[in-house]
Amino acid sequence: MSRPWRPRTSRTLTRVRTGPQLRELTTERFTAELDALTAIYALAMDAPQDELPGRRSIMERHCGYPAFRAIVAVLGGEQEVPVGFAYGFHGAPGQWWHDLVRDSVAAQHGREAATFWLGDPFEIAEVHVHPAHQGRGTGRAMMEHLAAGRPERTALLSTPQGHIRARRLYRSLGFTDLLPGFTFPGAGPAYAIMGVALPLPGLPPDRSDRSASPSRW
Questions:
Q1: Which of 41, 65, 87, 170 is catalytic?
Q2: What is the rounded radius of gyration, in angstroms, for the C-alpha atoms of the chain?
């Protein structure tokens, strides 16, 4: 069982419409809170219990990747409760997802396209909101602040092909399909690989640099 979320110790960046506040997690804090974050993943994705240890291990490995950044949405009170999280990192050769997607984009769209999209990417690995708090702007707020001020040329992510709400959100942020109906090795459900040129289109100027970032925990 994960320990309670620790009380707030830094300034608030922003408040989502219905109340959650956004924080940026240090790598150490992200690792310490993996149980709570994995529980949100399980609820948001309706994931089977036997999948969760592997997912937790992947998330722990990801936080060691270059330029890792994580945002968490919390509800206030004596003990702040996480209701959503998102994270990403600089994609680079040698990373499994990066190499697989780069080769697939090159095969379908050519080397020039692969170089544009995968030559300098911010790869968004997870974006999840507790089902009771979905549809209230939390996912959008996390995405905007996660991508704010990133120096990379592009941002990429994968999302289940049939996850209509998530795909609608990503398209509203400017993401387009690069590899629709993509199946990862080992079969499983189809995914859409999506990308956008950074900075995200339509963001106010004060979200286009690191001054818009939350305080780090």
A1: 170
A2: 17
Residue extents of the structural domains in the chain: 21-212
Q: Residue 8's pLDDT band (boundaries 50, 70, 90)?
A: very low
Domain 21-212 in CATH 3.40.50.300? The answer is: no
Is it the case that residue 2 has pLDDT exceeding 50?
no
Query: Is there a cis peptide before residue 20, judged by omega within 30 degrees of 0?
Result: no
Q: What is the total residue count of the chain? A: 217
Shortest CA distance to 120 belongs to which of 98, 104, 105, 142? 98
Tell me which residue of 118, 116, 111 sits closest to 95, measured CA to CA.
118
- Whether 170 is catalytic: yes
27 pLDDT more than 60: yes
123 class by beta-carbon count within 10 Å (0-12 exposed, 13-18 middle, 19+ buried): buried
Sequence-distant (6+) residues with CB within 8 A of 173 are 140, 143, 144, 196, 200, 201
